[in-house]
Each structure stands twice: as C-alpha cells, then as structure tokens.
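Researcher: Next sequence.
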Amino acid sequence: MQVPSAVFPPEEYAARIAATRAALEQCGRAGIFVTDPANLFYLVGYDAWSFYVPQVLFLPVQGRPLLYLRAMDAIGAHRFTELPAEQVVAWPEGLIHRTDAHPFRWIAGDLRERGVVEELKGQTIAYEGGAQYFNVTSYLALVSEIAEWDLQDSGELINWVRLVKSPAEIELMRKAALVTDRVMAVAVEGLRAGRREGDLAGEIMAAQAAGTAEIVGDVTACPPLIATGEAADTPHLTWGAREFRDGQQVSFELAGAHHHYTVPMARTVSLGRPSPDLARLAGSTLEASDAVLDAIRPGAVVGDVVREWDRRITAAGFSKASRLGYSIGIGFPPDWGERTVSLRVEDTTELRVDMTFHVIAGMWMTGYGFELSSSIRVGEDGAEILGSVPRQLIVKE
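Model: Next structure:
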C-alpha cells in the first residue's frame, strides 16, 4: 500500500533502489551507507528536518535495507517511507551530542548483532564521503567499529543515478518552475528605493513557502541571494539592513521548490537607467548564454556546449573563470546542486533526455556584475526552459 505522504508510487522507489544496486555491483561494492538527505529522500522518501544528527540508510546489494534514525524521528518515519516498520531502526536518544559515544558506533554494533557484518566480511562497502552531514567524527566512529569491511568513498554514486530524471520527476520540476516564476515576480515587483533588503527577503521567502494557488511551495536549499549596488560584483550574498537606492543594480538568485525538486533562477534589475558598462555586459552575457541554450541537445558533450559560451564571451572582451552551471533536481540545504555534472570545458558528460541543469551566466566584474540564469531540461529537440520570466536585464525606471 502506498504511504499517504509518499511523493511517488512504490514502483518508482523500487526502480531507484534497483538502479542504485546495479551501480554498486558495477563498481564492485556490496552495499552503501546513505547519509545525504537528498539521497534518502530519493531512495525511500524519508523527509524530515532531522539531518543535523546522524541518519543513515544501509542499502546492501542483496538483502533488506535498514533505515537508522534518531528515536524521536523513527516514530514518525512511516509518514514518509514505505519501508516496513522492522526495517526502521531507532538509535537511542541518549547518544545525542556525546563525546564518549556516537550513533554510528551504535549502528555498527546493531549491524554486527544482525549478522550483517559477518555476512559481508571482506567486501567493499561504500560511504558518502561528499555528503555535507556525514562528518569526520561520524566516519571515524564507523570505521573504528567495522574493521572487517573495506570502506570506500562512493564517488557520489547515487547522485549520478539521479542524473536522468523520470517523467514523474520532470513533472514536479515543471510545477516548481511555476513557483519560481512567482517568487521572482515578487522580488522584482517589491524592489524599490527606500526599502530594506531584509523586508524584501521576507516577502520572497513567504512566496517560496506559499507557492501558487495550485502548487504548494517548499523550503529551498539556499536562502534568497541578493547582491546590491557595488556588492553585485560578489556572488552568494544574502541580505542586511541596507536600503535600496535609485541608480543601483540588484542581482537576485532565487528558487522555487515543490517536494524538494528545485528550479533556481537568477536575474539582474537596474533601478533606473543602467550604466553603459552594465548594459554592455548584460548584452554580451545574454548573447553568449542564448548560444549555450541553443547548443544543448541529446548527444551533445558538455564541454563542447560550454565552448559556445567561451567563444562569444571572449569575442566580447570578457572572460569567466567559474563554471557555467550544474545538474539540479532534489535540493536539501546547503546546496541545490547534485554534485555531479558541472558545465565547464573539461566535462565530457554526454547530454541525455531528461537531464536537468541550472545554466547560470554569472559575470562578476569590479564594482558591478550581471547574473542571468535558467533552469533547463534536456528535451528531445533541445533545451526546455523551466520558467517564463524574460531573459534580460530588467530595468525599473
């Protein structure tokens, strides 16, 4: 029976687990410790704000998965995952924030008591070394307790399994794009001289949560990013008590999300006539970015697509050292990227239908900058842009 709160039907989760097991077998792993909250959500649907403490799915290639959660979280796990109750294991509350004990030691002991350690003795087991919430202390606690296993980094194995989206996932991202459109509209409409950055940020976050009349919003992996005036030469800024002023430029990098599927978007707004430098940068960036979108198609190689950008932006007299984007899908804090494909010349990934990317042309100069981005799906005939906000420098006179 499908869990009422499950986002996808049982067969979708079964296909994801099967694909992960196949990938593990292909690289000679007998199992994996899954600690990335996005991957837990992807594989078994688990979704609670509890990833600040150890939570892990032990997924063997053969045998039953076991989901280890803090006791107070395990009680409600049935609301998200359709794993049988006997496969959800509660580790004791008394292990929270201890220096003389650790949940991963307890988890290792439980696997030993179940006979799993002996069953997989001498085999290679993967762990998610790149997961933000699998820290050094957790790793050391794990390896100290299971010397019988050869523990090796997964190389973001599940993230790569997630790269090509299912039709159901694409539908969620299209819905998230409608939330993104609304969020960016609120940002642009609410931007005016005399307002504090923090007041506008509050309206943006309210729009992210509310979504649209038909589509509920979700918490996004990153807060609203707002770079104002000369600070627009710096990416990844949030907000403060500063007031917007006439003549300034403001760069927004925002997102809408639906069931954690996230569609980012960046736009730059000029409060009044833009400076000649900004106008020239915006025009060149838009032209080069459009060339990238035109080059995206199934079978194209990422590096070749990015070369279209390099040729045009260099001819305009500019350069960009940072990557041009990255794969997206499920987003949990602190990042909505998947940590797999990066849009840069060195990437040799071949594009496939239903891969999804955030293509972000961020140009940060000295004292000014321009950001323009679109989230896209690789469609059968080229790039499907997710979102409808015009791709241009927005001028508010």
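Model: DSSP finds eleven helices and 15 strands in the chain. Residues 167-190 form the longest helix (24 residues).
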